[in-house]
Design brief:
Layout lengths: L1 E5 L5 E5 L7 H5 L7 E7 L2 H15 L3 E7 L8 H13 L7 E6 L1 H13 L5 E6 L2 H7 L4 E6 L2 E8 L4 E4 L9 H18 L1 H9 L6 H18 L14 H10 L7 H18 L7 H11 L10 H8 L5 E2 L2 E9 L2 E8 L3 H5 L2
The structure holds nicotinamide-adenine-dinucleotide and glycine.
Glycine (GLY) binds next to loops.
Length: 349
Amino acid sequence: MRKVEVKTGRSYDILIEHNILDKAGEYIRPLTKAIRAVIVSDSNVAPIYSNRVKASLEKNGFETSLFVFEAGEASKRLSTIEKMYTHFYEHDLTRTDIVVALGGGVTGDMAGFAAASYLRGIDFVQIPTSLLAQVDSSVGGKTGVDLPGGKNLVGAFWQPRLVLIDPETLNTLPDVFFTDGLGEVVKYGCIRSRSLFEKLERENARDIIDEVIYECVSIKRDVVQNDERDTGERAILNFGHTFGHALEKLNNYTVLTHGEAVAAGAAILTRISENKGLTEKGTSQCLEALLKKYSLPTDSGFSLAEITAATRGDKKSTGKSINFILLKNIGECYIYKLKIEDFGEFFGI
Ligand code: NAD
Ligand code: GLY
């Protein structure tokens, strides 16, 4: 078992262990006086894994119930949260009880937000089952839902009490979502770890997935500990995301998965920053080669003018400028604040 300790306002452990699903109750029990546990999961994950988590919770004295929603980003909205609150209410969930998020990032973000707001905040545990959720969304306490106007516009910072990662669950994750998660994995190598990047070059990520997950969550832990509320350094986790979000928007959230959009966004931006002398020579070539190795895109069918126009409404914008995350080289990055009025000159459009 590998363990990563997260020292935030509310501290917690991330445990990585094969078949840890069967020990969920054992690990959660000492952390809580909860009598009831609501497992929140989606319509793909619940039929495969919820029974094992339920059995382990019940073996450790929890009364359990299961809330299942239709899988997919389209469910990540307030109407699903309202149904979740109703389930909590009907199952007599009290302030000392617990919510267990079993699934991908959509499940974790929604269960976390419901836990953050129900009765003004109850404990929750993350059991992430997609690669993206295991390396990224289950750690750091960002929870929330989408609005018709944009993704993740409503939410709360609410740290989990525990994160349990079972790499075995990735065996049932469709390949498209595994590749999607690899987009974020490559991101971690780019921004903070040349050694992770080189490992991904040398090996096949799937063969060393425990190590990969451990290194990614360790990087995310370090960043989140320094900037829990996302007012500074945490922005580096958005490498590739500003253009990535623009590409997702330009594709009407179809065609490219999030990880693919981030990969293409990272590659496009790094080509530009290298050409402008803001990134060391050769960085872009290394990045593109690694993305191609993992079947991730390095370009999009859109012009720079279209992409930059679509970034203007980005949530990461601060008034009249946007914080781009640029690579210094592989493993090091920095925040580059660019005024929107300077876009034309900077991007040559
Ligand atoms: P998801 O939860 O929709 O999961 C992707 C798909 O894989 C779904 O169809 C799901 O049912 C299925 N699935 C998950 N685990 C499975 C398994 N083990 N076996 C079979 N099927 C499985 O999406 P995601 O890609 O995990 O996460 C994306 C979400 O995460 C987005 O809403 C994004 O905004 C959010 N996110 C949040 C943070 C954060 O810090 N909170 C960070 C990054 C992304
Ligand atoms: N995924 C970005 C963050 O957690 O800040």
